[in-house]
Specification:
695 residues; alpha+beta; Topoisomerase I, domain 2; Topoisomerase I, domain 3; 5 domains; 4-stranded parallel sheet; 30 strands; 34% helix
């Protein structure tokens, strides 16, 4: 009997695939990559056509030996690694490491691990796609030369084991740019004005919002507000206009890698790496009671929203049977075919079998697996349902020359919302309108509600919003978002607090060096252009070594220039006036994983260290002692009293010696402005204006 060998990447898949194939098939796993560039050297021969020097990955010798034994026994070898560039490259590396040139070898791939998909892939076996392999090689070599040429420079310059990366350095730059925007932002005061109105014959009052005159107005100060209030105090309130209409909310499209990461972050509070890890488990197969090991979702690395005809038909039948025919969408939801970056061999992320509801498999899944599967299942079902329909009412109320507005909506057909609502969807709330309301209805003013506000700076990036901007800018691809973010957090360039990402002191230093010495590498447009060239390799339009040939000499020149400048700005240990209390030497400033600290220069004889408290020359507004720069546990910088924890003063912005002339509170610096530290005061002035003022 013929013997066929199927090699997959992950041992978790072996069990799932084995049950779909006959006894003459042997299924085994390579455990990911088996060859890679060596860690101890650059591993790219820059003198000889940039040829990569691949070696067997440490610890993979036994796996390869086992695979070679199976290859000898097999009549045919099927390479069934993941259906993307990385998977294609693993298949190619396997063919080289196992010397499969003279063996009947076929490449098979499937987007979902189901019996039909696996069987179909065997019928459509093909050769290894060298264009995809070369696209992966180009990425690997580019990432290697950037990392291995720049990282040692950072080490020398900042005096610690830092690293740079082709995509991670751009992501860091994007976060740094946002921090600069936030730091430069000056809040502006504005006021809102609501009026509560009694409607004749009704118990509940109606709340209307201030609009302006014929044009919309923003109330900028308390003075402006008081002037408006005095004008409308004695005015009659009449209904000026009532408009009814209908609003539609379209069904969402199925998940891509990026949108799944974003929604899982918002709805489930999952980090991007966690989302990918759990999605991988759902794709590879879960032991479902009564069904054995089953792959629950399609392949998780995709930027396509396309759905197969079979899956589309199945979900429509499911919706019709379980919700009614009126809930089935008229035509297929628009696929994302317009995006030039899409690798459309893939489908969107969807359940492999829509009839396998989250409730049906709940017992077999962990809590996190269940929550993610439920998210994918609901989104997919919703994507083939009718839009939600709302009845809207808009009322304009006159008070002299001013106008107030009331907006209300009520849902008349739930449509897809029966199954799915997005995490950040605003809850439908507000006025419940009286049915008999018309232009003759009598209104009586009950009370005014006024509130002071300040405009808010742009929000800090979260993992979800960073993924979104990386995708929009064309930086990285579905497989790179999670590892990129994980890397900059692990390196402590970025601190994550309450979902928000903050630039740390060490992140600032690295970003500054990269921007100064390697502007093209952190340039968004350059990196996006590089991504499209790499996509060109995958499409067979660009030779992969051509990209390296054009990139490497410029990188080498930039590194050499930076090294020369480096010699001129050699950083010495800064000696302080703090005396080591163990040996009496003057302590020096060192850099550690959390930034600066004080260390004894007598190391290793004396190992004494102390926290480094950098004074900013401003007295604490609470106790009068010195304000120092401090850091949170995760590396985010703030300003606090040197007498902490006895004195609890802290500020995210740098305090100033100046006092607020309006309320007497301390001021903080923001660019060339000084702002009152009391958020309720809102006083702002230019720094130069304060110079002539008495302290």
């Amino acid at each position: 009997m013929a013997r066929y060998l199927v090699i997959v990447e992950s041992p978790a898949k072996v069990k799932t695939i084995k049950k779909f194939l006959g006894s003459n098939y042997v299924v085994t796993a390579s455990n990911g990559h088996v060859r890679d560039l060596p860690k101890s050297q650059l591993g790219v021969d820059v003198e000889h056509d940039y040829e990569p020097k691949y070696i067997t990955i440490r610890g993979k010798g036994d796996i390869l030996a086992g695979l070679r034994k199976e290859v000898k026994k097999a009549d045919k070898v099927y390479l069934a690694t993941d259906p993307d560039r990385e998977g294609e490259a693993i298949s190619w590396h396997l063919s080289k490491a196992l010397k499969l040139e003279n063996k009947k070898t076929y490449r098979i791939s499937f987007n979902e691990i189901t019996k039909n998909a696996v069987k179909a892939s065997l019928k459509n076996a093909r050769e290894i796609d060298m264009d995809l392999v070369d696209a992966q090689q180009a990425r690997r070599v580019l990432d290697r030369v950037v990392g291995y040429r720049i990282s040692p420079l950072l080490w020398t310059k900042v005096k610690r084991g830092l690293s740079a990366g082709r995509v991670q350095s751009v992501a860091l730059r994007i976060i740094a740019d946002r921090e600069e925007e936030i730091n430069a932002f000056i809040p502006e005061e504005y006021w809102t004005l609501d009026v509560d109105l009694k409607v004749e014959g009704e118990k509940k009052p109606l709340t209307a919002k201030f609009y302006g005159t014929d044009k919309k107005m923003t109330i900028r100060s308390k003075e402006e507000l008081d002037a408006i209030l005095s004008e409308i105090e004695s005015e009659e309130y009449t209904i000026d206009d009532i408009r009814k209409g209908e609003r539609m909310k379209k069904a969402p499209i199925p998940f891509t890698t990026s949108t799944l990461q974003q929604e899982a972050s918002k709805a489930l509070n999952f980090a991007t790496a966690k989302t990918m890890r759990i999605a991988q488990q759902l794709y590879e197969g879960i032991d479902i009671k009564g069904n054995g090991t089953v792959g629950l979702i399609t392949y998780l690395r995709t930027d396509s929203t396309r759905v197969s005809e079979e899956a589309d038909q199945n979900v429509r039948e499911y919706i019709g049977a379980n919700f009614g025919k009126e809930y089935v969408a008229v035509s297929e939801a628009k696929s994302g075919g317009g995006n030039k970056n899409i690798q459309d061999a893939h489908e969107a992320i969807r359940p492999t079998d829509v009839s396998r509801t989250p409730a049906a498999v709940k017992e077999s899944l962990s809590r996190d697996q269940f929550r993610l599967y439920q998210l994918v299942w609901k989104r997919f079902v919703a994507s083939r349902m009718q839009p939600a329909r709302y009845e809207t009412t808009s009322i304009r109320i006159a008070a002299g020359q001013y106008r107030f507005t009331v907006a209300a909506s009520k849902i008349v057909f739930e449509g897809f919302r029966t199954v799915y609502t997005e995490a950040e969807e605003e809850k439908e709330k507000g006025n419940v309108l009286v049915k008999g309301l018309d232009q003759d209805t009598k209104l009586t003013k009950l009370d005014f509600e006024t509130k002071q506000h300040f405009t808010q700076p742009p929000a800090h990036y979260t993992e979800a919003s960073l993924v979104k901007i990386l995708e929009e800018l064309g930086i990285g691809r579905p497989s790179t978002y999670a590892p990129t973010i994980s890397t900059i957090i692990a390196r402590r360039y970025v601190a994550k607090e309450n979902k928000n990402l903050y630039l740390t002191e060490i992140g600032e230093v690295v970003d500054h060096i990269m921007t100064e010495s390697f502007p093209s590498i952190v340039d968004v447009n350059f990196t996006a252009n590089m991504e499209s060239l790499l996509d060109g390799v995958a499409e067979g339009k660009v030779k992969w070594k051509t990209i390296i040939e054009n990139f490497y000499p410029d990188l080498e020149e930039a590194v050499e220039k930076a090294e020369k400048e480096q010699e001129q700005v050699k950083i010495e240990d800064e000696v302080t006036d703090v005396i080591c209390d163990q040996c009496g030497r003057n302590m020096v400033i060192k850099y550690g994983p959390h930034g600066k600290f004080l260390a004894c220069p007598g190391f290793p004889e004396c190992r004494n260290t102390k926290p480094y408290l950098e004074k900013i020359g401003v007295p604490c507004p609470v106790c009068g002692k010195d304000i120092v720069t401090r850091k949170t546990k995760k590396g985010r910088r703030y300003y606090g009293c040197e007498d902490n924890p006895e004195c609890e003063f802290m500020s995210w912005q740098k305090p100033s010696v100046e006092k607020c002339p309006r309320c007497g509170s301390y001021m903080v610096e923001k660019g060339n402005k000084l702002l009152c530290g009391d958020g309720q005061c809102g006083y702002v002035e230019n720094k130069e204006n304060s110079k002539g003022r008495k302290k």
